[in-house]
Write a structure and sequence with these properties.
heterodimer, A: mainly beta, 7-stranded mixed sheet, 4-stranded antiparallel sheet, 0% helix, B: 6-stranded mixed sheet, 3-stranded antiparallel sheet, globular
């Protein structure tokens, strides 16, 4: 079955960087686009970014454009999110997610918490 | 920037019909999707492409879309339907987004 396991979260100071990973299994990773979605504590869902199956296309929410970079390593079945110049408002649980055919964001990981605080 | 607007909360009694709306200027041309999120859990897709139900979603969940508004309807809402509901769509530039979410209370 599809499994998505995020890691790399933690506490980081404003202005610093952090890289999240999402280990995928149970499907042919190299064939699917992947997303990152975040949720600040007590707040709603925010779509962050998407990468195409081969990494050639990437789209970002305006709130992270220029600071976050999505990438993937299809040989390792792993999705990444490089987060630079972090701000307090980036504090959230970060989920990786995968579509299922015409059902977007059907599979989700358990999330990893990023806290940006001095 | 483009936004999807939902009411913050909706409240119904068990057995009543709950309707949650989502408005956005691109909805006449873009599909709406609906997600249910219960406390401490990952979201679950309940409606896709405006009005279709994924397998395993109860028939009481339905969707519709007209003009700039999409609607999620829960006919005969049950206590276990109490959750946050989010609409999801894209703008005409392909940017994807969620609505602000609606807290459904069934009591």
């Amino acid at each position: 079955q599809v499994q998505l396991v995020e890691s790399g979260g933690g506490v980081v100071q404003p202005g610093r960087s952090l890289r999240l990973s999402c280990a995928a299994s149970g499907f042919t990773f190299r064939s699917y686009a992947m997303h990152w979605v975040r949720q600040a504590p007590g707040k709603g869902l925010e779509w962050v970014t998407i990468i195409s199956y081969d990494g050639s296309k990437k789209y970002y929410a305006d709130s992270v454009k220029g600071r976050f970079t999505i990438s993937r390593d299809n040989s390792k079945n792993t999705l990444y999110l490089q987060m630079n110049s972090l701000r307090a408002e980036d504090t959230a649980v970060y989920y990786c997610a995968k579509d299922r055919a015409e059902w977007p964001l059907y599979y989700w990981g358990q999330g990893t918490l990023v806290t940006v605080s001095s | 920037s483009y936004e999807l607007t939902q009411p913050p909360s909706v409240s119904v009694s068990p057995g009543q019909t709950a309707r949650i709306t989502c408005s956005g200027d691109a909805l006449p041309k873009k599909y709406a999707y609906w997600y249910q999120q219960k406390s401490g859990q990952a979201p679950v897709l309940v409606i896709y492409e405006d009005n279709k139900r994924p397998s395993g979603i109860p028939e009481r969940f339905s969707g519709s879309s007209s003009g700039t508004m999409a609607t999620l309807t829960i006919s005969g809402a049950q206590v276990e339907d109490e959750a946050d509901y989010y609409c999801y769509s894209a703008d005409n530039n392909g940017n994807q987004m969620f609505g602000g979410g609606t807290k459904l209370t069934v009591l």
